[in-house]
Amino acid sequence: MHPKRFVLVLCVSTALAVPGLAPADQDHPHKDGGHGHSPAGAPGSRAKVSKVFDVRMLDTMRFEPSSFEVHSGQTVKFVVTNAGQIRHEFGIGTREEQRAHAEMMLADPDMQHEDGSVITVEPGQTKELIWRFGRAGQYEAACQVPGHYPAGMMARIVVRRR
Fold first, then answer.
1. What pTM did the predictor assign?
2. For the chain, what is the domain count?
3. Is 104 within 8 Å of 34 (Cβ atoms)?
4. Which parts of 42-144 fold into alpha helices (H)?
5. Residue 143 region, left (φ>0) first, then alpha (ψ -120 to 50), else beta?
6. Are 98 and 39 in contact (CB under 8 A)?
7. Cα 142 vs. chain centroid, distance in angstroms?
8. Rounded Cα–Cα distance for residues 90 and 141 (Å)
């Protein structure tokens, strides 16, 4: 059975960035320093992918679509392409995790991530993030390059119970 393929476009402008993507082949802890998992989930196993979203990051600081739905426990592969002229991030987490990550990026604007929960995507690059969604609820995919998240570079993720 082939996974369903959807298109998600992430738009980017001259503001700030997005957290939360991973090319992981196995489950890993979330971005809290390895001491637990985010309610949003954690990097997932490539073998368990059941849905693929194609994501484009644009220099308009927006994602297209601006929201999408998945199910708790579902593993999704995000294929993320930076179609813009500036660097962006793609990361998944709670609103609180996104805000904390934004503050961390302000302290170190050149920080780049490849930790399973956040990927940095340079202009013209395509990278993958595999994510296993956690509890039902509302979460965000966001760019945490300084200024991008406050400029609106985020997408709402609705996780439904199975």
1. 0.75
2. 1
3. no
4. 95-107
5. beta
6. no
7. 6
8. 7
Domain extent at residue 12: 4-160
Q: How far apart are CA 118 and CA 92, in angstroms?
A: 7
Burial (Cβ within 10 Å: 0-12, 13-18, ≥19) of residue 129: buried
Residue that is written with structure tokens 């609103």 in the block = 95
Give the CA dihedral 84, 86, 92, 97, nearest 10 degrees. -150
> Is the CB of residue 71 less than 8 Å from the CB of residue 162?
yes
Give residue-wise pLDDT tens across range 19-73.
333 333 233 333 433 334 799 999 999 999 999 999 999 889 987 778 889 999 9
Whether the Cβ atoms of residue 45 and residue 131 lie closer than 8 Å to each other: no
Structure tokens at 70: 């998945």
CATH classification of the domain holding 78: 2.60.40.420
Both structure tokens of 132 = 């296993």
